[in-house]
């Protein structure tokens, strides 16, 4: 299949072994034209040699800036009308890019497309069509986004509108991505994909799940170390506070901050020094962001002539029937 240029942007940090598996499956895609860009967060292994051997573009950063800033940097270098943001610890079906591009080509109002992720062995799905609900759903693909709002996933056999696309495998329309200002770089690890797609929905731009776009993800590889686990913990805490403050109705803002402060009090009372320190760092950071976030919140909803409550209601009622 041929169509507009797709720029695949793969963020990498000491992932030479992952790139050995990931890159051949991208180079074997049925879709053309396709450019591949590796954005490297200051790796010290042989990642550059792997990229050079496969003949893909290499963008080296001088330090590890995190996921969202690296994705934005890749988008700056990209020439494609369509951007494909990918993790390096994945492999892809030969028709993956083609299946991702189809909803974009059929509907110019689609901002982002999400894919079906399996675990590395292919024994079970780990990412499906993402929905939003006020109550938790009784299965393991459900988690709290903020207190009182839950993201859950369900199987769909055809393309359907969804809450968000995973940054591990998100295709986005470049013009819309630039109009939105890209990923919020204050979210370096976690919630960056939710926040971006939420803002796109405020503009009336859709996110669609494409079940025919299959990929396999070595889930959790980066969070198995103590350092990775702590980064993930802080990413979730900060992601909840920033996303709620910037985009959600006031009652969810209050709940999210209250639960965060209650957790800090518990960790202090139980003398959990490391978790307390992590929470205090997140708190200090989010307090610095507070005034800019309030200004951004007002501008986002004023420009769209809507309110956080109306937007939330819309996302809770996203259609579940095929497009």
Describe what is shown at a glance.
This protein has 323 residues and is α/β, with parallel strands linked by helices. It has ten helices and 13 strands.
Question: Keywords for this structure?
Answer:
Spore Coat Polysaccharide Biosynthesis Protein SpsA, Chain A, 13 strands, 323 residues
Which helices and strands, and how do they pair?
Blueprint lengths: L1 E11 L3 H12 L4 E9 L6 H8 L2 E4 L6 H11 L4 E6 L2 E3 L3 H11 L3 E10 L5 E3 L1 E5 L8 E5 L2 E6 L5 E2 L7 E5 H6 L12 H11 L3 E12 L8 H22 L2 H20 L3 H32 L3 H9 L7
Parallel strand pairs: 1-2, 1-4, 2-3, 6-13
Antiparallel strand pairs: 4-12, 5-13, 6-7, 6-12, 8-10, 9-10, 11-13
* Strand residue percentage: 25-35%
Uncertain segments are none
Write the H/E string, N to C: EHEHEHEEHEEEEEEEHHEHHHH
- Indicate how many domains the architecture comprises: 2
In percent, how helical is the residue content?
Answer: 40-55%
Straight-line distance between termini? 22 Å
CATH architecture name of the largest domain: Alpha-Beta Complex
CATH class assignment of the largest domain: Alpha Beta
Shape: globular
Mean pLDDT: 94
Provide the gyration radius in Å: 19 Å
Helical segment tally?
10
- What is the CATH topology of the largest domain? Spore Coat Polysaccharide Biosynthesis Protein SpsA, Chain A
Query: In the CATH hierarchy, what is the superfamily of the largest domain?
Result: Spore Coat Polysaccharide Biosynthesis Protein SpsA, Chain A
Given helix and strand content, the structural type is: alpha/beta
The major pleated sheet works out as: 10 strands, mixed
How many E-type strands? 13
């Amino acid at each position: 299949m041929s169509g507009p240029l797709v720029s695949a942007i793969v963020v990498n940090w000491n992932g030479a072994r992952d790139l050995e598996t990931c890159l051949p499956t991208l180079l074997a895609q049925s879709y053309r034209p396709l450019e591949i860009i590796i954005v490297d967060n200051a790796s010290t292994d042989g990642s550059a040699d792997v990229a050079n051997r496969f003949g893909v573009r290499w963008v080296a950063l001088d330090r590890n800036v995190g996921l969202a800033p690296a994705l934005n940097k890749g988008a700056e270098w990209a020439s494609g009308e369509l951007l494909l943001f990918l993790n390096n610890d994945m492999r892809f079906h030969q028709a993956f890019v083609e299946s991702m591009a189809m909803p974009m080509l059929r509907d110019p109002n689609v901002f982002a497309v999400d894919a079906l992720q399996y675990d590395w062995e292919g024994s079970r799905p780990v990412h499906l069509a993402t929905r939003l609900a006020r109550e938790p759903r009784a299965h393991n693909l459900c988690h709290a986004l903020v207190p009182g709002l839950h993201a859950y996933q369900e199987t769909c056999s055809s393309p359907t509108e969804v809450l968000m696309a995973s940054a591990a495998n998100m295709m986005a329309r470049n013009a819309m991505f630039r109009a939105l200002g890209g990923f919020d770089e204050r979210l370096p690890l976690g919630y960056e994909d939710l926040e971006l797609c939420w803002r796109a929905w405020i503009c009336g731009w859709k996110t669609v799940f494409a079940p025919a776009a299959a990929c396999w993800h070595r889930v959790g590889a980066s969070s198995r170390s103590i350092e990775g686990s702590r980064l993930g913990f802080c990413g979730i805490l900060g992601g909840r506070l920033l996303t709620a403050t910037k985009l959600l109705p006031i009652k969810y803002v209050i709940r999210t901050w209250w639960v965060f402060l209650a957790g800090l009090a518990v960790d202090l009372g139980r003398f959990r020094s490391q978790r307390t320190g992590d929470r205090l760092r997140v708190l200090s950071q989010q307090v610095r962001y507070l005034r800019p976030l309030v200004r951004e919140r007002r501008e986002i909803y004023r420009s769209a002539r809507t309110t956080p409550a109306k937007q939330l209601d819309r996302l809770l009622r996203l259609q579940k029937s095929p497009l």
